[in-house]
Amino acid sequence: MTELTLVEAVTRALAWEMNADPAVIVLGEDVGLNGGVFRATAGLQERFGTQRVIDTPLAETLIAGMSVGMAAEHLKPVAEIQFMGFIYPTIDHILSHAGRLRTRTRGRLTCPMVLRAAFGGGIHAPEHHSESTEALFAHIPGIRVVIPSSPARAYGLLLAAIRDPDPVVFLEPKRLYRMLKQPVADDGEALPLDVCFVLREGTDLTLVSWGAMIVETLAAADRLAAEGISAEVIDVATIAPLDIDSILESVARTGRCVIVHEAARNNGVGAEIAAELADKGLLSLLAPVARVTGYDTIMPLYQLENDYLPDTARIVAAARQTLEVT
Amino acid sequence: MRRDSDLGGLADPGRFSEPLEIAGNDAGTLLEYLRSMQLIRCAEELIGEMVTEGVAKTPCHLGIGQEAVAVGVASGLNATDRVFGNHRSHSQFLALGGDVYSLIAEVLGKADGASNGMGGSMHLYGASVGFQGSVPLVGATIPIAVGAALAAKMGGGQEVAVAFFGDGACEEGVFHESLNLASVYELPILFVVENNLFSSHLDIQLRQPSDSVARFAEAHRIQSRIVDGNDVVRVSAAAGELISRARAGGGPGFLEAVTYRLRGHVGPNEDIDVGVHRKMQDVNAWKQRCPIKRLHAAMAGAGLITPDEFDEQSRGVMSEVRSAVDRARAAPYPDKSTLLDLVYSTRARA
Questions:
Q1: Which of A160, A316, B126, B326 has the fewest CB atoms within 10 Å, counting from its CB?
Q2: What distance in Å separates the CA atoms of residue B87 and residue B194, rounded to the nearest whole number?
Q3: Are A73 and B148 inside 8 Å of each other by CB?
């Protein structure tokens, strides 16, 4: 089994599926000749040709709109948006068409497209190059929003996203692109898009997170374990539609829950999870649901970014506070 | 301040009211154009009546006066082509051969409608005739049509994509993004602008430095034609030329068809109380440029249709549309179970 970084796993998944399915088309800004701003599409145009790896002009609305048109014609476009902050022009088409095509035409047209974007902090740029606005997409009916947190899950979830008959927004935490290598079997096996992943079992509280924050969350679980506290860690991975049942099941056992995300707190996906826990799991809760999140402001430049991003200490503190409620 | 018109006579309501020049055109084809335009006119007039009555409850954007554009362009298309519309697309749906009952039923939100009652007037879908959908976001279907054209090119067939939109859509950014890429990749697509000189309520003279939008095609090195959009023969000839060229791998085409809507932006009224420069005398002058009246006059003058034949055809169209209206009014609405069943390929959470 080869050891791959997350970005290499993305490339392998793209190559696997392009090889297996001639309908898969990669398109985006600099994805061809250049191989992608983060090298996620490196070598694909050489291998699959300019017809299947299409360099587009700098026109994000067009990229999304033409992907909708291609997908309705039974192609499987996988479009890359270089940074999360560049994705907003695509919302015009993701919201207004991609997520609605199936319902609008009573299933006669579908939109099996993937919109990949590099997402989250970690490259020392403010605002558009580093933000986490996944909640914008999670609010859109008909769209799946998937965020991998390891090379193996990036590989398996991206394959699933490309094969899924629905439009998928696939957000790749750029802080993890080259943070670590992990054995990844390049075997074409997809992972499910409708379940959370339990990364660590525990009995005292449930830590719920996704994306790059999984790193800090697992580290927090380690630190809590050293204090004799057993934390379950859930990687939500597909934040929409949300597998709330897995989270409810875990919290039914632990009675306590801390949600961790990089995005701003206000109306973040954590708020939806907390609301679902209140709706459906209130009687199993032993303490209020806590959220450890970014702040309700723009993503700051690198020095302040360290203050903005949740860290292990903040997660551990929230966990302790939750555990103090008796 | 009113600038000089780059469209000249084409935008002048006092011009082009004479019978069409039809010499050299096949009588059967002309008769089909006439019937198709009458069907669209009649359907939209009855839809307008149903809006007034409150029976059609969804916003309806009527293209009364603009029928020749859809009919002329459709004459060069096949059911395997991919046509995209906008908020004013009853005409395109019918010109392509869409069933008038399914149109009226859709306008009334009924389960039998073209989009099974999910869309209404502004979201029409007719795959069997190549109508891949209309949506009321100005400019929105232009990049989707580009995607369909890319798929057609990759498929290696002869299909073309067609995007119908208005002069207002040329002010949207994605219009330029789409023309640029279509030109660079030499895609088989026809951009059809129904330049009716108004976007919602504002005169093109107050929105653009020129009243002719074909200049954008030139900027993107796309072949363009500017025609009298109320002359179905000229629309058909120009569209046919651009479509054939696109089918043969010659790249995109751009048709600017200058026309005028006789009713308001939305609803059946003549819309002289709002907006700028829209005067009753203009509306009345454009009525003399009516595409149906001019074709009929030419055909009658050439002895291609007698008054009796025309009356019989008109009655036939009226009866077809009236019976569609009666059936559609009696048809059921979509079942509540359709609210959530197709949001995802698997059922979404209730």
A1: B326
A2: 12
A3: yes
Find chain B residues with C-beta within 8 A of A73's C-beta: 82, 147-148, 151-152, 155
Residue A213 domain boundaries: 197-324
Shared domain check, A125 and A13: yes
Query: Rounded to whole angstroms, how far apart are CA atoms B325 and B312?
Result: 20
End residue of a domain, out of A156, A184, A212 = A184
Peptide bond into A241 cis (omega under 30): yes
Inter-residue contact B188 to B247 (CB < 8 Å): yes
C-beta atoms of A106 and B338 within 8 A: yes
> pLDDT by residue for chain A (326 residues), tens digit each?
899 999 999 999 999 999 999 999 999 999 999 999 999 999 999 999 999 999 999 999 999 999 999 999 999 999 999 999 999 999 999 999 999 999 999 999 999 999 999 999 988 888 999 999 999 999 999 999 999 999 999 999 999 999 999 999 999 999 999 999 999 999 999 999 999 999 999 999 999 999 999 999 999 999 999 999 999 999 999 999 999 999 999 999 999 999 999 999 999 999 999 999 999 999 999 999 999 999 999 999 988 998 999 999 999 999 999 999 98
Task: Please report whether residue B3 resides in a domain.
Answer: no
Residue owning tokens 């009555």: B53
> What residue type is assigned to position B219 of the chain?
A
**Phi, psi dihedral angles at B339 (to 5 degrees):** -60, -40
A50, A55, A66: which to substitute to probe chain B, counting the most B Cβ within 10 Å?
A66
Instruction: Look up the ipTM and state it.
Output: 0.91
- Decide: helix, strand or coil at residue A107: coil
Number of domains in chain A: 2
